[in-house]
Amino acid sequence: MPVSSLSRAIPAASLDLAELKLMANALRALTMDAIEQAKSGHPGMPLGMADVAAVLFSQHLKFDPADPAWPDRDRLILSAGHGSMLLYAALHLLGYEDMPLDELKRFRTTHSRAAGHPEYGHAGGIETTTGPLGQGLATAIGFALAERLGAAHFGKDIVDHRTYVIASDGDLMEGISQEAIALAGHFKLSRLTVLFDDNNICIDGSVDMVESTDQLARFRASGWHVLRIDGHDPEAISAAIDEARASDRPTLIACRTVIGFSAPTKANKPDAHSSPLGTKEVAGARANLGWNWGPFEIPDAADAAWKAAAARGKQDRQDWIKRFAQVPADRKVVFERCLTKSLPAGLSEAVLAAKRGFVESAAQIPTRKASEQVFDQLSRLLPELISGSADLTSATLNKASLRAITPEDFSGHFVHWGIREHAMVAAMNGLAIEGFIPVGATFLAFSDYFRPALRLSALMGLGTIHVMTHDSIGLGEDGSTHQPVEHLAALRAMPNLLVLRPADGIETAEAWEIALQNRKRPTILALTRQPVPQLRQDAETQNRSALGAYEIAAANGEAQVSLFSSGSEVQLALAARDQLESEGIATRVVSVPSFELFAEQPASYRAAILGTAPVRVAVEAAVRQSWDGLIGIDGDFIGMNSFGASGPAEELYELFGITAKAVADAARQQLKRKGVS
Amino acid sequence: MPVSSLSRAIPAASLDLAELKLMANALRALTMDAIEQAKSGHPGMPLGMADVAAVLFSQHLKFDPADPAWPDRDRLILSAGHGSMLLYAALHLLGYEDMPLDELKRFRTTHSRAAGHPEYGHAGGIETTTGPLGQGLATAIGFALAERLGAAHFGKDIVDHRTYVIASDGDLMEGISQEAIALAGHFKLSRLTVLFDDNNICIDGSVDMVESTDQLARFRASGWHVLRIDGHDPEAISAAIDEARASDRPTLIACRTVIGFSAPTKANKPDAHSSPLGTKEVAGARANLGWNWGPFEIPDAADAAWKAAAARGKQDRQDWIKRFAQVPADRKVVFERCLTKSLPAGLSEAVLAAKRGFVESAAQIPTRKASEQVFDQLSRLLPELISGSADLTSATLNKASLRAITPEDFSGHFVHWGIREHAMVAAMNGLAIEGFIPVGATFLAFSDYFRPALRLSALMGLGTIHVMTHDSIGLGEDGSTHQPVEHLAALRAMPNLLVLRPADGIETAEAWEIALQNRKRPTILALTRQPVPQLRQDAETQNRSALGAYEIAAANGEAQVSLFSSGSEVQLALAARDQLESEGIATRVVSVPSFELFAEQPASYRAAILGTAPVRVAVEAAVRQSWDGLIGIDGDFIGMNSFGASGPAEELYELFGITAKAVADAARQQLKRKGVS
After folding, report:
1. B368 is in an annotated binding site
2. Of A73, A165, A462, B179, which has the fewest Cβ atoms less than 10 A away?
């Protein structure tokens, strides 16, 4: 089926240059007005990139303000998020309902949709949260990949759009940019176009002061189509975007611009970057632009031009709606689940079957292996699940039977990301926004490599799932560099992030169920490299891990001791309990797969789980920080207070004193200290 | 003064190829033996890069095993740290005292110097800890920069050496590599040579599967000299290193190698990468190499060749010692302080003067501004201090009067790192190892971008200092992406890292004193963007912040309430105390600039500071996690439990309920709940 796609209405040579200048100046004027009003903001980029934006919106971008969520719209990612006013001004002029003039007037004030940096969910047209440099560019890999996946999985008749990125020199300096560039080049993401605001100014001064890289050569080295243009020449801009659209590779358009364009003394200077220009400079800029209107005032001609630009996509969207109506239901079902972020039936049954399997086999296996078994079943039910690993597939075990995608064939469900944890997670954010269920994997210690992107998952409320294996000193010989110690605490500190550390096969199955059900926050699955025993036998009960913490072994009689633990150390707590019980010390054990879920339980449940035993001991092969909230100041903690070491896992547990004996000893001593026995 | 530097003894064309092969095979045999013995390890890289290593050690590298710490030795960084056996085997064969055969036999066992990945401090010849990919390459920027700084600051007669890096495809995929490559190219670090193990195999399969970047073109784009050779051809290797030494730019030598070279079925396959080859495969490899000796057995000819290589640098070191003896004392003083990591006199006086200044001026200033004032004084006393900022110099305020270095002039003391937080901190690790005092800066929220490198600072015990400004929602309008919330807790979770969050000018001065005195662990200085009042008047007292926590305001009478706080929120705790005291509720306030230092105090002091007041409330504009250990399960916490928002700082404090009133309310309610009043 031939598919319509917006083509430029008029050849570049016959663009209405006066109208485009007016459109661009409207962006500039609103930018200056909003920033002056807020007494805060970054005018430099919007003033510089206004011409590019005017051409993009009026000639190329496929969108319809009447439905900002239209699935087949082109995506525009403002990676240079500090230039947020460029986007807000455009959205306002285009008539996006969420962005009335009042929002611009309230730019950077509390509760405004026009936040300091663009925030996903604040308004239609903001495709993703940006600001931390490099993130937008790398997230755009996810958007562009989602388009290719969508075209392959759901059909080119309903998924056929492009992704544009506006990026700054800062985006290109951040390391994550190289990971993104390499991935886009490798996968030949030809629907991706990066408009580089090549203004040669950073905060500290001229970019030349800190960068000698030939960016065009750099992108070319990774298989991109590249070109350089005058970013203030509408014809050149439009022709370049045409060229990008015709390329079979991703395209970099380096747009030579003047930061703070039109500002009489601050243009082309770092001063224009991140502070209001000030009344005098704004007046000069308005004069230079020939902009004779008052603050927040838009002349009719500019308004009409922007409204005309807004109307361009209407027909395309109508056509798409018609095409979509004709798509047979069986081909639409997964696509629609992606749109609504709903789940198919049968997942709970698969989880139950997996739980039964663990009880039956009773095998000692690593939780990463248990995870693979569960994942294998669940992934068969979820074509919208896109898994991947940062070159550790054979260790993280999250491929199962999935077929890998290649630059030539996007019909698979697994991405070999290469050793690019950071771009992997940023791209997962893009995939998640597009409705896929992205699963990414590496060792837990290397979660540090992707924290900035994970933070955006949590901030945006995206259901990314992170398979983090080798979750403690239990990984053994690879040593301290690979052994997470502080990572569990550091991850548990992050708002809106679920951290799950299952203790056995059953808890692992439950953890997967929880992860999949949480489409509005990311989940970390912390899994062992080393085998652990199957602790629970109650396959049939509801998801106990979903309570965050629960009593996995009761005391015989009134508990004198409560032991708390997670993951591979729950077995130590249970062994310590056996020992203490054998000495007549009534001891209960609480498994704590998730601090966050526990914190969400009713106060009465939390109190019951904390219990009334006078003695509390926690054991986890990690730092204490997270556990204070359960065991209190006078509780004992058996765990790590240093980095790990290289050696066999069993030896390391002995070396660092993380043993059942140490747990029992601590309980006995605390009993004595507190005068209980 | 003409300076000797090792030149190759013989032209490449007349190398003793048989001897070099024997030397390389000795590395291969020891690698296989140690890994088989450990039943764990990564044979692929050492087998592949043995020829390169044999040529480098025997023909080019300047070193003397008699003094592994000889300051003017060449540095070899094994960025591909998983190939640790390559380095251990070489060090052993060269006669490094720390690496007897027994250590190789105990490879990857507990307490062995031969850890899974090379760990700084375990043995001479291990220049830095590597393993997390990309770190070695980026740390090498610090080493190469230190050499240039040393030559400029101390004299080319005593600092004149080179830095070599062995890097893998994984190192080059990690984003941090681009930051490092760009910096090396920009600063024209011609003394840096990267030997890229270009074997086209990663764990998941062929590198082609995940990477289409032309690495030579990529490095060339950043100003590197590049060449590609057969990594098994000693003449080509030696000639390439000669070419690198002659270049005025950093050099990439892509060495085409066969991973697992000589292994009959596993060579050139991912199987060779990270698992023992197994008895049969090892036997085949030995046969292929013509290696007829037993495990851990080295034939005399190989031993002699390695010992001859080891002897090459002896004369050079003797000459250096003579030259060094002739250097006048005034030119050596800072150099020697770098070697011993000692500090000059006068720092405490400068800190005291700064403290007095804050009391006298009584001005409300941000702690970042207070930091600048202290830093300005201290940096004048410390020529070994190398400061820098990730393109936020005007915000992080850690340049003061320092002059920036440029590619042409390394006599300055400030580095404009560009927006490259990750490589900045990795390079700071290199600078710190070389004895400089590196100070690096960005916003606290962006500490996430450099956590993997910071972790290595902490693991290696390096005194890097991190000026982290904009440390809470108090930064205001830039919004949630820029506002740290979980970062303080996440950083406090890291072993061997000092986190200091000063409350006013005096605490800021004290924090700088602490940071400089801690040359064996990194320090985070969390500083405000917004002004805070000068709380303390006791400029003359000892460094109270060094206690970690101390009573900044006593209760009138027996305390009913203890309030705990840090940084910009201490003023809120003090205001709440005033209110509570006015109501007759005896209230004390504890300022907690550092959890780590507090934890190191004697139990009696800690108990006294926790106090006996039945009510405990903490306030910090961040998550609660860190504070449970001070206020207990039943204490109240006023802070953040979500991400921040965009708006003026004062409004945000109200919005998130972080106010003196909220603190006082919580205290009153807790008093009631506990039935105290």
Report:
1. yes
2. A73
